[in-house]
TrEMBL record:
Protein name: Uncharacterized protein
UniProt KW keywords: Membrane, Transmembrane, Transmembrane helix, Transport
Limits of the Cation efflux protein cytoplasmic domain: 369-434
Membrane topology type: Multi-pass membrane protein
Primary location group: membrane
Biased composition (Polar residues): 27-52
GO cellular component: membrane
Location relative to the cell: Membrane
């Protein structure tokens, strides 16, 4: 997850959707245009068998669903903000508003105007995608995720098992190349190749462990085992790189009498074969890298191997054709590169495990689902979404009428929780019911143990 994913959670105190009937609020344009009590929604309806009892507020009759918004309408008229492709094409940047340091208006250069227009059109295209994602029912999100998972199942197996078999064969090839040539640069590429099958094995075992969970022993599931396994593997690769740095440094300090090393063509050809195979695997995993988290790890591994093998070939040939010290120096640079790449991956995995805020698009979707869940929700107090391994934990504080019955508040909160947990990326959802928005947050941030 990139830096743009590390954002503050959505917290609203007070909220423009706050419409308590017993406490007057200062009127505003936001309140009148986005009042939840007049809104309708495209959000999915909860199934009738999801709960054991349903009542309408003010009634003691069981078996009835609490009132909800309609699926056929757009509560906040988001659809009216969509722009057609023809409208987007006609949008042009205002080139007459750029000013110099003395506030004299000047015209933009043609290239700058075109670039500004392209950015503006891209903004509206991104806005269209965001609106369409919000208007899509939760059921449609679930169906699309299942369909994507079903369609990618064969591709996933090919990527994982194909990478595993290829890495085992390339491991043997790289061991031969390093042992026959004696090149430290090729020893570095060999060390990376030896641990690649272990990386694939870690992914396969993690996937099996996640699918076989004892809910009594692991009530929150085992999804985080994948993240923990990735972190362990990252530090293992970093340790091997440090060992290679030590050997290369010793060889540099001892020196050699000959100006160059012996050139060994079969070893170079073996690494070239490994480079070509890794490039084919990299190209195959590239299309699926943003759809399956495990394939993204494989894609990053193949990308790293391309850099390592390519640089290893150059430094090994340089040591045998130009100067002997190019080979150990190249091994040191390669080891430093490997360490940096894997430590960067470990940092990202640590962020997921610690719990970093979800990206803004996911927060927007969760907020919109909560706002349009039921007319009984009069305000949204706080929305938080943060990672817990590869998936998300969601916390939503909703506001309801203090006179509403316990059954009504329970049913609305339970249905919202089930709806949020049905989203593909959500591991757990917690819904808290308030009757006002002026209180302090329910959970304080503990900075000391």
């Amino acid at each position: 997850m990139g830096d743009e994913s590390i954002r503050h959670s959505i917290s609203m105190h007070p909220h423009p959707f706050h419409l308590h009937p017993h406490r007057p609020d200062t009127p505003s344009k936001t309140t009148t245009s986005l009042g939840l009590n007049e809104a309708t929604s495209t959000a999915i309806e909860a199934t009738d068998n999801a709960t054991q009892h349903r009542v309408i507020p003010g009634s003691d009759e069981e078996g009835q669903l609490p009132p909800r918004y309609s699926m056929d309408n757009d509560p906040f008229q988001l659809a009216s903000k969509l722009k057609t492709p023809q409208e987007i094409e006609k949008i042009e940047a205002n080139t007459s508003r750029k000013r110099t340091g003395v506030c004299n208006p000047i015209a933009m250069a043609p290239g700058q105007a075109a670039q500004s227009t392209k950015r503006l059109q891209g903004f509206y295209q991104s806005q269209n995608e965001t609106i369409e994602r919000m208007l899509k029912p939760v059921e449609e999100h679930v169906r699309a995720a299942r369909e994507l998972n079903s369609n990618n199942q064969l591709k996933y197996r090919i990527a994982v098992w194909g990478s595993f078999v290829a890495n085992v064969l390339l491991c043997v090839l790289q061991v031969y190349a390093a042992a026959s040539s004696g090149s430290l640069s090729l020893f570095t590429t060999m060390a990376d190749a030896v641990f690649d099958p272990m990386s694939n094995l870690t992914l396969l075992l993690s996937n099996k462990a996640v699918n076989r969970v004892d809910p009594r022993k692991f009530p929150a599931g085992k999804a985080r085992i994948e993240t923990a396994g990735n972190i362990c593997f990252c530090f293992l690769m970093t340790s091997v790189s440090f060992i290679l740095i030590a050997f290369s440094g010793r060889e540099l300090s001892e020196g050699r009498s000959a100006d160059t090393d012996t050139f060994h063509l079969p070893s170079i050809l073996a690494v070239v074969v490994a480079f070509s195979t890794k490039f084919a695997l990299f190209a195959y995993c590239w299309a699926l890298r943003n759809q399956v988290s495990q394939i993204r790890i494989l894609w990053e591994d193949h990308r790293n191997d391309l850099l390592i093998n390519g640089f290893g070939i150059l430094t090994s040939v340089g040591g045998s054709k130009l100067r002997w010290w190019i080979d150990p120096m190249g091994a040191i640079l390669l080891s430093v590169l490997i360490s940096c790449l894997w430590l960067r991956t470990a940092y990202g995995e640590f962020q997921l495990l610690i719990g970093v805020t979800a990206d803004i698009h996911m927060q927007q979707l969760i907020t919109y689902i909560a706002m349009t869940h039921s007319p009984l929700i009069t305000a949204i107090d706080t929305v938080r979404a943060y990672t817990s391994g590869p998936r998300l934990v969601v916390e939503v504080d909703i506001v309801m009428d203090p006179e509403a019955t316990l059954r009504a508040t329970h049913d609305v909160a339970e249905e919202l929780q089930m709806k949020l947990e049905s989203l593909p990326d959500v591991e757990r959802a917690y819904v808290h019911v308030d009757y006002e928005t002026t209180h302090k947050p329910e959970h304080s941030l503990k900075k000391e143990l």
